[in-house]
Amino acid sequence: MTELEKQQAGGQTNYRAFISYSHSDKTVARWLHTELERYRLPAKFIGNSTSLGPVPKELRPIFRDQDELPASGNLGAELQNALARSLFLIVICSPSSARSKWVNEEIRQFKLLHGADKVLALIIDGTPNATPDKSEQECFAPALKFKVAAGGELTTTPSEPIAADLRSNADGKRLAKLKLISGLTGLRLDDLVQRDAARRMRTLVQISIVSLLAAVFAVGLAFYANDRRLEADAQRTIAEQESATARAVSDFLVNSFASANSAQDNPNTITARTILDRGALKISTELQEQPLVQSRLSATIALAYNNLGLFDQAIEVVDNIATNSGVKNPAAFLIKAEALQRKGELDKSMAVANYAQELSKQKKLIKYDRDSAKIRAEIARIQAIINYQLGRHEQGLQAFGRALHELENMPKPDYVEIANILQNRALLLSDAGDLEQATADLERAMSLVLNSVGKKSIRVGQISLAQAQVNFLSGNLTPALEQIAAAISNMQGILENDNPSLADALSMQGQILHAMGRLDEAKSALTQAVDIYTKAYGGRHYLSGIAEVYLGLIAGDQHDVTAALAHFDEAKLHYDAGYGEVHANHGDLLVNRATVLAAAGEIERANQDCDEGMGILVATLGEKAAFTQQLQVVCDGLKKQ
């Protein structure tokens, strides 16, 4: 028997949820209360067994206190009883509620009664886990941010509330509501989203039928109207209908394909790859008279292809639709640039990113799904990543700075995207030797992601991977190994086994294990990474080159110089194909090969490799770069032998 059933059996009025809010947010609380109580679960799911018991027909009753709270220091008996008889607590999060002692007390008491896992957060304003310099923007109350001890006192251990974000630049009203309903029922969010999309499509059809009947009726009235006025009205009506049709078709197709826009889909499954291929064909052949819709959807489908590792398909759909529609969408070309970057074609990627930047500056820039500030931020982000991978650290940091400036100064910041920028900037900072700032960036990124999308998001795994890399570069191997294990665990629960993101984590795990002297384990992880990269990218890739360098070092440590040199040769071939020109990693490869040769007694060849490698590093990174100086110390040590 579920908790709600036990309450009902005892003759008590039970509540699916208790809404906790500051009375300055009462408009949102009233809206949420109404939406949840009138929501009817799809018939397909009613009665299905979940962790919360059978799925009900409806969520009502939901408790919302409609009176101002008393001036005393305690919650009233009615509120305490309602808290005790509520299965969930929904906290409406804003700077106002974060400062409310009553909201904080309701959260504290509910956690004592029912545990933290039954607390759901709905962000409407402010910043979760705001930094000290922006504390006035904090939207999480203390009892929401931290765990509550058995005795009721607040601890300093961070809590990880499940959060939905009502704001239009985040989840928006529809998805935020469905996220809460998913939490309240135990149903999968994907199932609810798909049923909601189907319901909306039926509504569109019904609206179309009604509109058609209205148009027929209007024709009958036309005989009694003034000809000139009728013509003007008709033209306006046609324009409005065309606009509405474009929005309706666009929204429908976006909803149809958005489920494939996730790194956790397998490119070989019919629910992802097949739907995308059919969608790409459909927008090319069936929407020829709606070029703006074609262009918008080309970006959506290309992004889904990218997230599935299907980079050639992403590039193809962007190019085809741009040619057929005549519309040059900067958002679509950004996705093409990212596909090229992830393929390792960095020069081509930078050229496309720069082209997208030029498109975004045009006065007739069409406002697709994102405003101009976000487009500028995304352009800066991809330019920063390419510069980082080309070893241009200063240009990369400048571009990341532009991206953060654009995102943080938006009226409604996209916190997940800010976290993404911070994560990428941290890797560049760590390469440049600024490990303190890199660590701070990653801590902030993790906080933003946990409070925006939860701990089961692939983004949590990606940030854990970045944290492991920074600790690895700092020489903190034990925490690095723990973080990379957490990253791999997260990714294996979400991704297919041949996803290149998993290979990134395995490659880093191999590097850490090598540094710890656990050579066989390191070799296994790195070999798996190379196998995945080769399959995912269809051949040579600079990421395979990085793994091959470490396999060469392992072979050298095991006194197999022939195998080591073979791995280094493979690494160079990968670098040549991926970078297209001399890159800092070519210099790193030569210095690493020099260490193996020196250990084998071939000092002259080792010194030659060191000289050549350091020349490359100085030319690409600069003499004062932290990485250049670190490897110079290695070469100086070899020359003293």
From TrEMBL:
Coiled-coil features, chain-numbered ranges: none
Residue ranges crossing the lipid bilayer per the database entry: 204-225
Residue ranges annotated for the TIR domain, each copy included: 13-170
Keyword field: Membrane, Repeat, TPR repeat, Transmembrane, Transmembrane helix
SMART domains xrefs: TPR
UniProt-listed InterPro entries: TIR_dom, Toll_tir_struct_dom_sf, TPR-like_helical_dom_sf, TPR_rpt
Cross-referenced PROSITE patterns: TIR
Biological process, per Gene Ontology: signal transduction
Any matching Pfam family: TIR_2
PANTHER family listed in its UniProt record: NEPHROCYSTIN-3, TETRATRICOPEPTIDE REPEAT PROTEIN (AFU_ORTHOLOGUE AFUA_6G03870)
Name used for this protein in its record: TIR domain-containing protein
